[in-house]
Fold these 2 entries.
Entry 1:
Amino acid sequence: MARSLPSPRWKSRNEKKTVLADLRKICTPQASISDEAWEKIMLSDESNQQHIREAIVAMERNNQNNYWEALGKVECSDM
């Protein structure tokens, strides 16, 4: 049985807002959907969760290259 990974742990609202805003620049939805619906879609994929966790760690370490590299690995779903 596949074990599901926990969702990213946000240390602050600002951290979550920043990561999701930057990710939305990369994965812009075609349709008009709410931020909450878009976030659920993006976090429904386990590999996306892992890449977002990697981006959070890079942000905490002030490593912009790794931050953008991790966000660039996120799979943008067709919306």
Entry 2:
Amino acid sequence: MWYSNLPLRKNQFPRPVIIGIAETHVLYRQALALSLSSLESVKVIAESATICALLDKPESESVNVIISGLEINDPNCYQMVRTLSLCKRKVKLILYGCFEDEKIIRHLFKHGVYGFVNKCSSLDVLLDAILFFNSKSHFYIPTYQANSDCSLSSNIGNGYRKLSNRELDVLIGICKGFSNKDIADFLKIGVRTVEKLREKIKNKTGIKNSAELIKYAIKNHLYCPYTDMPIKLI
């Protein structure tokens, strides 16, 4: 089913996202690596049972995204997040698990996790989380929404096809209610650049006001208001 979006993803992401997988169950880890490796937009270069073991591998230096399973009853469930933050690498962490407690997910985001995917979601949702890794926002879509008729896999193409990564960042800032100056400060670009990007977003989407842009972002799953964490401006 998820092969239907391959032409779009190949064109939008000419360079593959480099992946590392940390999963204690060998069969699950190998199956996930095999599935992701079949896509041109993703390249799995490292696998291991734990994040610590994965980071010890020389090839992990070039990883963009680490995917790891998470059991909520594991007393060391937050240790992996600390390990990744302490190594100070520019790598995003996507966790998957069988729970959907939004308080826990918010806590994980606060401690540095980029995205969370429920195991009940389709592989397509995980792939979209991977391809969204350049965003300044967090990735999480409730299972009921991800598996609905208007799921991410059926709609996200419209947003990605129209907007660049930088335009997506500005759009998310608009959704959060940030001013042009706030967005410029966070993205470390000029206010005038933000204004130009806003105009490009409006021209590409045909939407002229912020309220309708927010609706567009939610409809195309470019912004999730349910669990998205407020961005702390620097």
